Amino acid sequence: MRYFPLLADTRDKTILLCGGGALALAKLRLLLKTEARIVIVSPAVVTEISEYAERTPGPGQIVWHQRSFGPSDLANIFLAYVATEDPAEDQRIAACAREAGILVNVVDTPDESTIITPAIVDRDPVVVAIGSEGAAPVLARKIKAGVEESLSVTLGDLVNAAAPHRTRVAEALDHRAKRLLWENFFDGAGEAAFAENGAEGVSDLIDRLIAADGIDKQNRGRVVLIGAGPGDPDLLTLKARKVLHRADVVLYDRLVDARILELARREATFIEVGKSGRSGGENSWKQSDIDALMIEHAKSGALVARLKSGDPLVFGRADEEIAACDAAGVPVTIVPGITAAAAAAASMGVSLTRRGRNSSITFLTARDVDGFANHDWRRLAEPGVTFAVYMGVQAAKALRTKLLMNGADPATPVTIVENASRQNELVASGILADLTDLIHDSGIEGPAVILVGLVRGSAKAERTDKVVIPFADAIRLNGGSQ
């Protein structure tokens, strides 16, 4: 990011505002929310500005110098806003401010500015700032409107009622219990107490929470197996987001999208515990080591988020991790996610099942602990059988051979979806006889799911040409009645 967001202390500071028209008035209204002294320099001002100067409650909070700007006006200035509505004059003032080492904002002219004022949601003392580095101010205002709707107008009053109790909470509880207390407080308990009995209700609630050691003891020392979905952060469940926000430790697989990790607390401990899909892969974690690390952190009192790509219950070795937790006496819960086959079918524009075509679908893996997995290939080769193959790219040749040897029609439709739901998603469709060539020619290396018996919604089952389409085109496909 070019502009780093921060909050500046304006108490006992002086802010310079150059200009007296409509732009300056809009900026003045914002600056009056601060505790700064405001100096306005302009030969003339609109009536509203002069009225503000006369009725501001703080003595000397607004001082108007009725003249043009001079370099001496920058003495003891914390930051400067320029809104003369004269481009040449704006440039002159901004140059003087930059030379003096003073932060300056020229309204609606980011190239002349060293700071940009974001769109602000004000629930003092809670302040939310939204910026676009000057590239899309309309978008920033749209986001602001959404945030405004999500935050209660009484939020600031609630925070002010809770603030005096921060010291005694910190003295009474350890770090984790303290965090749990405030999470419970701001998850709705505090708002209810404040609405019922004001500041006294808040004080009583905090007393009870301290006595209960943060109250949410069920969240301490446990493991949550979380499905991160196929990759797109928008496909993560609300429950998964909530657990990530609270987790002390996040153990994640290599396929988990980095944007999903951004949703976790910054203070959390992040450990990649990925496995390699290839035999003998470097830096591949053993399942027993993952189990031991997970249990170690949980027994120390941490809330451990075990983050797995897709759904942890679909080829995610969830049973082994659940059994390890049970044996160690560590509570474990599960948050399911969207599995790759479902995301792949969505991108293809088809349903995984359909009356008259296939009343069932099988999920299978091409690899198990012994290498290439063994399945009922004769049944899978029957006409009309539809199945999704996970971890099948490296085993595509063996998969093709097994199916053809057991009587599968060489023209059986197949579709490979790599990086389902991600921006670099790739969809390739063809027939079973060409499976290995299709993967090679498309440049597919994985992670990918192979859907046998399904093609894109606009393709016919007997189609034999190979189609490779990028993500941007795939998401526009309409499955119609196929």
The CATH homologous superfamily of the largest domain: Tetrapyrrole methylase, C-terminal domain
CATH fold name of the largest domain: Methyltransferase, Cobalt-precorrin-4 Transmethylase, Domain 2
* Spatial strand arrangement across the major sheet: 13-16-19-17-18-20
Radius of gyration: 30 Å
Strand proportion: 15-25%
* CATH hierarchy, class of the largest domain: Alpha Beta
Shape: elongated
Annotation field: number of helices: 16
Helical proportion? 25-40%
Give the number of DSSP strands.
20
Q: Runs with pLDDT <50, length 5+?
A: 458-482
Taking the sheet with the most strands, its summary is: 6 strands, mixed
- Total count of domains: 4
Structural class comes to: alpha/beta
Q: In words, what does this structure look like?
A:
It is a single chain. Helix content is 35%, strand content 18%. It is α/β, with parallel strands linked by helices and 482 residues long. The protein has four domains: 14-117, Rossmann fold (3-Layer(aba) Sandwich); 155-218, no CATH class; 221-338, Tetrapyrrole methylase, N-terminal domain (Cobalt-precorrin-4 Transmethylase, domain 1), CATH 3.40.1010; 341-474, Tetrapyrrole methylase, C-terminal domain (Methyltransferase, Cobalt-precorrin-4 Transmethylase, Domain 2, 2-Layer Sandwich), CATH 3.30.950. The strands form five sheets. A six-stranded mixed β-sheet has the order 13-16-19-17-18-20, with helices on both faces. A five-stranded parallel β-sheet has the order 3-2-1-4-5, with helices on both faces. The chain has a five-stranded parallel β-sheet with strand order 10-9-11-8-12, sandwiched between helices. β4, α3 and β5 (103-106) form a beta-alpha-beta unit. α5 packs across α7 (175-211). The radius of gyration is 30 Å and the shape is elongated. Residues 458-482 have low confidence and may be disordered.
